[in-house]
Specification:
This protein has about 450 residues and is mainly alpha-helical. The chain is about 65% helix and about 5% strand. It is built from 16 helices and 4 strands. The protein is elongated, with a radius of gyration of 27 Å.
Amino acid sequence: MEVTLPQMLFAREHRVQRQQVLLQEYSSPLVSFTLNIPGPVKNSPLIRRGFQAGCRMLEAALSQARLEILQRELEYPHTGCEGYYVIAGDAAAIKLLCASIEDSCPLGRLFDMDVVTPQGEQLRRDVAEADQRRCIVCGAPGRGCASRRVHTVEQLQQATRRILTEHFAGADADAAAALALRGLLDEVCTTPKPGLVDRANSGSHRDMDIFTFTASAAALAPYLRRCVEIGQQTQQLSPEQTFHALRKAGIQAEQAMFAATGGINTHKGAIFTMGTVCGALGRLWTPEAPCREPAAIARACGEMAAQAMEADFAAMAAAPAPMTVGQQLYREYGMKGIRGEVADGLPSVLRVGLPALERALAAGKSRNDAAAVTLLYLIAQVDDTNMIARGGMALAAEAREQVRRLLEREPLPEPEEIARLDQEFIHRRLSPGGCADLLAVTLFLHDWSQLR
């Protein structure tokens, strides 16, 4: 909605009156927070998001400085977002804090954090010995560009949107990559896990332990963020082109993994699955709000991967002997493994993993115990080619049936029961690595969806 000059003047008068009421009531310094938004549109989903980010920055800085907020009021009229913070503290110190926020990042250039003393005096930036603010278009210091109207309203609006968009593109990529990394770390830390590396033992593996996995996960952190960026940067291209770029990044990530682990394959499957999920999230991203719907993200995974996976399966069918275990399973039984899971839009995550995790958490299970239970449901439902490769078709089916019977008796098994199952899997040298990758994705999508 566009606003008129009279409406803006009325809003300014309202702001002054509200400031006076709060100063009279509390006799403490006041921060009046608005945004510098050029043009007739002063409020929108993106503008509100920028304002809310500024509020979080201000509140975090006040908390770190141990400055108590006596009163906080946030308003979102069409004339522009407004925030009022009454703070117990020294006005000059608060002004220094606000100026540091305004100068801390490009987004801060849009912040207007006025500090008013208990006596009603508005403090200037020179009180905080802060530099002059710069033009958002050309970077010139001071108010010369504005006073001389050097830049058009359209140029100022474009610069404002660029600042907001670039800030949230980076912030959302950081947040997604951090949660994806947490998913990988929480998966390996979940204990007990049948046949898998965890905090108690190395499962059915002799060449790796939990520290091998944490080293590998740390090496993959830049890759996870890069996958989100690839999705963001290729939104206008076809899903297949995005997936091609992700696969190229995945090759480099595998090299980083092997360098960190001394040649041990800890996360090859996770590089594929989690990288695709992060890329899908990037393709669906908008500056107003990132997509947090697991079903939509999973569907985007399928749209990106389906064509490439069909080509992979065709190559498997035509491959001469000797064949890999994956090629043999596909040719003899039509098993597509994790590639088919991603190409089909992660059905096991949506239909098995997420519902099981949410049920366990709702029942009061800790994150660790809920994740351990979720893994069992995945093992019971998924044809894990890692299990078949290690134990053969019959033994893998027998182990899967054993887990199903346990879940029928105890829908939420206790850790002691899972630990006994762990020992049996270790004895049989079974390791459900594919289900472990799906658990990591389940944890990530659950956490990401909770950030609404």
